[in-house]
Amino acid sequence: MKKYSSIIYANFAPYENNGNILKYLLQHFRIVILFSLNFHKLGEGQSPSMLLVYRNKKIVHKNRLFQSPITPSLAFILLPIRSIIIFFQILYHVYRFRNTYGPFEIFFSVNAFTAWTGIILKKLRLVRSTVFWIWDYFPPIHEDKIIMFMRWMYWLFDKPASIYADRTIFLNKRLYTLRKKLGIYPKNTFRFVGIGTHIIKMEHKSSYSLLFIGVLKKSQGLELVLRNTDRLARAFPAINVHIIGSGPDENFFKKLARTSEIPIYFHGLMDVFSSETKHIIAKTSIGIAPYKPERGNVSYYGDPSKIKNYIGYGLPVITTNVFEFAKEIKLQKSGIIIPYDIGSFIRALRNIHAEYNSFSSNSKKMAARYNYMHHYDALFEDNTTTLRVV
């Protein structure tokens, strides 16, 4: 395996290692400078915004970054100020480390604002090239007018970042089709690369123990389960739910769980590949991702990392027909796609339970196709022809 010179990687917590992308970068670049930035408040286990410098996979420098308050009520109101702070901190530290760890080959990001920041760094000759891996699109539609306005502002950065990055990668064809419809064409080559999987060999027994991994937001659809625990208890007396993650709506879900008629276990923010997390997941049998099919749900344009985690663990999936990858789950018979209603959810549980070994086997086969160890080569392969091998 070739190992290349240097890369600057900027992303927001807890997504820095989604699909093991950070692990991939550490395996392929001698110097990795990570800007791990906070947006939402994610509970007690959340680390502060950090700058980490890795040399040959080992941390050689650690710097806590300044961050403004991230309480739910202030997260979007202060977004312009927070963005300015992020921009100047990235600029300062890249300039500061240019002689020690540079020259920097690539600035890599999945967020429009930080991708735009990378383009500015290139104009200042602090990096050689930029790679924008487009993960999402935020429709300027929301019941909260402040959030709607901030989404519109985000789009102002998304346009130039999509067009002027040296290399543009789309998470799926839906994101490309949207930009094509809007007349926004990358000025460079582009391709499609989804979230990868990290395969964990684990055998699961068929049961009604459910797993939810992810940021706790209402759009993720966990409410479908927590508001219908009475029906679930009647249908499956031994059912329970394990929730790994935190997020802006955590207190809302915990309040719903107080009156639950089935056991609900909140484990908080955890590394999805840690031994502790594996111990929890080993108790479960089915991964759930009942995204709300509502207008303005950003998941419509994404690639669900939680589902890539589920199939990586060999878990069958129950999800809704919100994201493009749902078609693949249905085609490969690694899960069941349902409408957003509890009756369909209950029927899906019964169907998976009846053919559990087949669904689980299909999940494992599907995960092998997206193994991160080779899946991410397409992100950089055109660039690495000119990168320095070390």
Keywords for this entry:
Rossmann fold, globular, 8-stranded mixed β-sheet, single chain, 15 helices, 390 residues, 6-stranded parallel β-sheet, 2 domains
Major beta sheet, strand line-up: 4-3-2-1-5-6-7-8
| Structure annotation, total helices | 15
Q: State Rg.
A: 21 Å
CATH domain topology of the largest domain: Rossmann fold
Approximate helicity band: 25-40%
- What's the number of domains? 2
Which stretches are poorly predicted, pLDDT < 50 over at least 5 residues? none
Structural class assignment: alpha/beta
Q: What is the global morphology?
A: globular
Q: Report the average pLDDT across residues.
A: 87
The topology string of helices and strands comes to EHEEEHEHEHEHEEHHEHEHEHEHEHHHH
CATH superfamily heading of the largest domain: Glycogen Phosphorylase B
Q: What is the beta-strand fraction?
A: 15-25%
| Total beta-strand segments | 14
Biggest sheet features: 8 strands, mixed
Task: Give a written overview of the molecule.
The chain is built from 15 helices and 14 strands. The longest helix is centred in the first third of the chain and has 23 residues, at 79-101. It has helices at residues 21-28, 79-101, 112-123, 145-164, 173-181, 223-226, 229-235, 250-257, 275-281, 305-312, 326-332, 342-354, 356-369, 372-375, 377-380, and strands at 4-12, 29-37, 50-55, 58-64, 104-109, 127-134, 167-170, 190-192, 209-213, 240-244, 264-268, 286-289, 317-320, 335-338. 38% of the residues lie in helices and 20% in strands. The protein has 390 residues and is of the alpha/beta class. It has an eight-stranded mixed sheet. The chain has a six-stranded parallel sheet with strand order 11-10-9-12-13-14, sandwiched between helices. The protein has two domains: 4-196 and 372-380, Glycogen Phosphorylase B (Rossmann fold); 209-369, Glycogen Phosphorylase B (Rossmann fold, 3-Layer(aba) Sandwich). Helix 2 crosses helix 3, helix 3 crosses helix 4 (145-164) and helix 10 packs across helix 13 (356-369).
